[in-house]
Each structure stands twice: as C-alpha cells, then as structure tokens.
Specification:
The protein is α+β, with helices and mostly antiparallel strands. The protein folds into 2 domains: about 100 residues, no CATH class; about 130 residues, no CATH class. The protein is built from 6 helices and 15 strands. The strands form 4 sheets. Strands 7, 8, 9, 10, 11, 12, 13, 14 and 15 form a 9-stranded mixed beta sheet that branches. A two-stranded antiparallel sheet has the order 1-2. A two-stranded antiparallel sheet has the order 3-6. The longest helix has 17 residues. The protein is elongated, with a radius of gyration of 21 Å.
C-alpha cells in the first residue's frame, strides 16, 4: 500500500490478499458495483515517524508506473512486481531491527513451559484445534501460537485491588477469550501514550512459578492465570487495539 498526495509519500504497508474479490456495499454511497478483498498486513509503517521506500525511490526504480495517484488498487506487470520485491528486500535488510520488532509484535504465543499451569487452557486448544498443529510446528517453544493480523485486541479489562485480581476480555480471531489473573505482583498499563501496540499477546514465565502476561499495552506478573469459555464476538465490526 502506497501513501500518495502530500507529505512523506511512499510504501506504508506490506502484506498479501487472503480472499477472492467479494461484492459489497459501495463505500461512496453512489450505488456502484464495488468489490473488496481481505488482506493480511505483515508490516505497517508510519511514514511520518519511520523510514519508508519513498515515492522518489519507487519512480527511479520503476519509472513505467505512476506512483503519485490512483486508489482502490492498480495492477503492476510481472516485471514491475519483481523490481518492487527487490526494493522491499533491500528495505528489510537496511531496517532489519525494526522489521524484526514488528514481526515479534504480530504474535499470539503461549509458552510451552506455562501452558499446563493455566486453568482452562483446554478451552483455547479445543476452540482452535484446527490451527494448533501447524502453529506449534512453527515454534516448538510455544504450545499455542498464531500469526494472524488485525484481528486481536483488548476488549475490556479491570483490576480489583482488594482481591488482587485482574480481568481481561481478549478478542482473538473474532472470538472472545476471558482471562483472569490472580495474586498480582506487578501491573503496567500504557494507554493513550502514543505507543504502537499491534497484535501482541504472550504468556511466558516470570521469576519462580509466576506468569508474565503481555497484551497490547498491558503487562503483568501474577501467580495464577485461568481462561474462561471462549465465545463468538457478536458486534457488527471489530474495534481497534486499545
């Protein structure tokens, strides 16, 4: 995806299509035949804060394509696409630390060492058993791992200070996972501080037998974690991460 118009223009997203075109409601309200595709964004870039492949670089490498306008998608030739792939590979090599950080952020991972101590963990495995084997093979340190994008967030959270219990409703692939954390030793919440939280969820070991849970700006250490029964997310649209 390319930012056009004014400002720091150039490549601001890299990903792939995950569906065939589907007919939907015209976004402009003019009643036209309009088609949409689902996408997997692998890397998303803020061109005002991060290095990007600029419009000037694109025009120099692929002058046969107009990089300054258009919307709703335009097709590159195979040769143009090959040149763009080379540009992206070069960008990744020159910005490897940033790219690797983004890759780690787009992960839902539960460490194998702690999974057996999570009460109700079977709810997660039973619900996503169709994905479990393939995802486990990708990372043997995780008993459950997935790398879907743009579909996870903290729906609701609260902390009962008297009982030292933290409740989190977490959306995962269009489903709601209730999480309860008891006997907290540490709690950090970074909300509305301009931090960039994408699809970031991990449960690993902290000191001794404690859990470390991280979820889109929330970080806590506790003695016990339990999962409730997973339910479908029933709202009309997905919220953004909070």
């Amino acid at each position: 995806m390319v930012r056009v118009g004014s400002g720091n223009t150039g490549v601001v997203m890299h990903g792939n299509f995950t569906s065939e075109p589907q007919k939907g409601e015209d976004w402009s309200g003019k009643g036209r035949d309009t088609y949409y595709c689902d996408i997997n964004p692998w890397n998303m870039l803020d061109s005002d804060a991060q290095p990007i492949i600029t419009t000037e670089e694109l025009q120099k490498a692929i002058p046969s394509f107009d990089w300054t306008g258009g919307h709703s998608g335009r097709m590159l030739t195979k040769e143009e696409a090959k040149k763009l792939d080379k540009l992206w590979d070069k960008y990744c090599k020159n910005n490897s630390e940033f790219i690797e950080t983004q890759k780690r952020q787009f992960t839902f991972c539960i460490d194998k060492a702690v999974a057996s101590r999570i009460d109700g963990f079977e709810h997660l495995i039973d619900y996503f058993k169709h994905d479990w084997a393939d995802d486990y093979a990708k990372n043997p340190d995780c008993v459950f791992m997935e790398e879907y994008y743009g579909d996870t967030c903290n729906l609701k959270f609260d902390h009962d200070y008297e009982s030292s219990t933290f409740h989190l409703k977490y959306m995962l692939q269009g489903s709601v996972l209730p999480i309860t954390c008891k006997n907290l030793h540490r709690l950090e919440m970074k909300i509305d501080d301009d931090s960039d939280y994408t699809d970031w969820f991990k449960i690993t070991s902290a000191w001794e037998d404690c859990f470390l849970l991280e979820a889109n700006g929330i970080k806590l250490i506790c003695d016990e974690i339990s999962f409730g029964e997973i339910t479908d997310y029933t709202e009309d649209s997905y919220p953004v991460n909070i």
